[in-house]
Each structure stands twice: as structure tokens, then as C-alpha cells.
Amino acid sequence: MHQTGKTKVAIIGAGNVGASIAFAMALEQSASEIVLIDVNAEKAVGEALDINHGLCFLGQMAVYAGDYSDIASCDVIIVTAGMNRKPGQTRLDLARANVAIAKEIREVVK
């Protein structure tokens, strides 16, 4: 087990990247607590439940869906939130959309 102490990690964005990071961290036992936060709360809940189903084989750790209030006591915050590129959308347009998302997160987290 790689876990040292009590480390709380928030992952903002429970899509493919965020869920994969949470899963890898659970496998490595690199945190004692992982909170998944997503604009689609049901997605975050589903990903947390999926990871929790395998925790009985890995050891003690808390993985759950939460909201921005949960990040106050976090040791690490990982932001993976962002839009996927749509057909016909330029990379610059996508970057603008993702900058807007990052600004929204920053305002909420202040």
C-alpha cells in the first residue's frame, strides 16, 4: 500500500479523465479520501459507486461524489473539467469554452 497519512483529494470533472485518475488513485491507495465533483452530479455518483465496488479488495478509503464545499479541506485539487471538441469547432473555440469553465470553477472555489 502506498498511502501515507490522511490525504484528501478532490477531482473536479468526473468524465473519462477524472474518473480514470480517481480509479488509478484508488488502485494505488495514494489517498485516504477522494471526492469527485462534476456539473453532472449523477455522473460523479456513478463513477464513485463503480470505484467503491472494488474497494473491498483494496483496503480502507473513502471515494464519494461531492460538491465544491468538499474541497475546503483537500490536500490536492485536480481539475479535469472541460468540454469535448464538437464537429466543426476550432481548437481556439474549444480553448475559449474551456477557459470559461476554468473561470467558473475559480469563482466558485474562491
TrEMBL record:
Keywords: NAD, Oxidoreductase. Residues 7-108 form the Lactate/malate dehydrogenase N-terminal domain. GO terms for molecular function: L-lactate dehydrogenase (NAD+) activity. Coiled coil: none annotated. Signal peptide: none annotated. The keyword Oxidoreductase applies. Transmembrane segments: none annotated. Pfam families: Ldh_1_N. GO terms for biological process: lactate metabolic process. This is Lactate/malate dehydrogenase, NAD binding domain.
